[in-house]
Structure formats: C-alpha cells, structure tokens
Amino acid sequence: MIKLEKVSKIFGTGAAGLSDINLVIDKGEFVFLVGHTGSGKTTLLRLLIREMLPSEGTIFIGDLDVVALPQQKIPHLRKKIGVVFQDLKLLMDRTIFENVILPLEIIGFKKEEAAKRVEELLEQVGILEHRDKFPVQLSGGEMQRAAIARALTLSPDILLADEPTGNLDSKTAFDIVELLSKINQNGTTVIMATHNLDLLKKYAKNRVIALEKGKVIRDQKHAKEEHSAEKKVEEKSQETKEQSKREPVTKIEKPEKKGEKK
Q1: Of 79, 82, 133, 251, which one has the fewest beta carbons inside 10 Å?
Q2: Residues 6+ apart with CB under 8 A from 17
Q3: Average of pLDDT values for 72-97?
Q4: Percent of the residues in the chain that have a pLDDT greater than 70, as a whole number
C-alpha cells in the first residue's frame, strides 16, 4: 500500500510542486495519474522513489517510512519500485540485453540466472528477437518495452511509468498500456502518469487521479461504473419526461363568473 498524508513540495524558487496531497493506493491497483505539464505528476513519482524529499507530510510504502528512511536503506526501497522514466534512460552504447541485465549485475546476480531472467522478461514484453540490437535500432514502442523490461528485473511490487506513451502513435500507445495491464494482473501495482485522455476512455475501469497546480482535483475509482450509474439516472429522467407527454391532460374548467349565463 502507498499512503501520502498532507504531502507538500515547495521548490527553492517558491513554486509549489505539490500542495497538501492525501492519497491511499492499495496493493494491486492500476492508477492513471493525469494532469497538464507542471501539474505535479513527475514530482509525485520522484517523491515515491525518494529522489527528493517533501517539504511537509509523510509517505509510506508498505511499512517503510520513505521520508524518515536512512540513506543506506534507500536501495532497499528502490528494489520494491520499478521505474519507466519519461526519457527512458537506456544506455545507447549497450544492447537491449545489456541494458536490461544491468540492474541484476549491480546487485551481484549470478550470470546464468541473470541471463535467464532477462530472456524471460524480453519475451514477456515481446522484444526477445531484438535482444542484441542497440536502442537506436528500435522503434519508439520497442524502446518503451525495453525500458519496461528493465524496470521489472528485480520483480518490484510497484511499477511507476512516467508518460510511457507520450511520443507514440495511438495504436502503439494502446499496446503499451495493454502490456502494463497484463503486468498489473500479475499482482504489480501500476501508477502511470499520462495526459492521453483517449486511454482513459478505453480503460475506464481504472482509477484516475487528476492533478492541477500541485493539488488533487479528482480521485475517481471505477469510472465505467460511475458513468453507467449516471447514464441510468439520465435514462430514468428521460423516461419520466416521455411518460408525462403520453399522459392525457385533464381539462380544468374555469369557474363561472357571477351573473354569467351557461
């Protein structure tokens, strides 16, 4: 579970990145984090991985107090969280296989086990045939898949994706979100920052948290169900109006005036 209480982030310039944020995201949720550029989406993601500290408030990921976490335990936190960065951060002088295996090499995984893990991940995201290519030889969607594979190497509980469909055509964007949905179905909590409203229409069952100028302006769960309920109310209202039109109108006779002949 992710829990933020009264979280604010004020930058050195005095600008507010986030203002008094209160959120609870349960294990296994798929959440769309939406808002215009500068709304606070990336700031929120950076706080979750302890890349920066809030000016006020508390952040818990599971039983870990992110704000009070000692420096030496930050790597332990980051093993729990996979990140697909907005600029991908793929190393251009290494192959896709070498990019994805890097986190495992850093923590000292055995070479054979690491190689097997990477091949499984590349197959899972659909780019195993590109394992020996360099990032520049891949399409935008394929590079996103490589970045997702790398983010999953340590089997994180949480996957953060910062605008993973920002520079992709609509079909490729839907393919990437479908991949993230499958990862979510396997138990990983997914938080995806996006400004692509078309995705929200197709994945209306997912929770949507909307930010504006650092504040939560909407936290909507199961949008499809809410839309369905609204539609039923509208249909009922329309039915009532139509029924009123069909009902005969009772003629009301005017009262006779005094002295008026019948």
Answers
A1: 251
A2: 9, 10, 11, 40, 43, 214
A3: 94
A4: 84
pLDDT tens-digit readout, 9-19: 999 888 899 99
* pLDDT 10s digits, 162-219: 999 988 999 999 999 999 999 999 999 999 999 888 888 888 899 999 999 999 999 9
Tokens linked to 68: 């009070």
* CB-based contact 138:96 (threshold 8 Å): yes
**Burial (0-12, 13-18, 19+ Cβ within 10 Å), 197:** exposed
At the topology level of CATH, where does 26-46+69-237 sit?
Rossmann fold (3.40.50)
Q: Domain extents for the chain? A: 26-46+69-237
Strands 30-34 and 189-194: parallel
Based on the number of CB atoms within 10 Å of its own CB, is 78 exposed (0-12), middle (13-18) or buried (19 or more)? middle
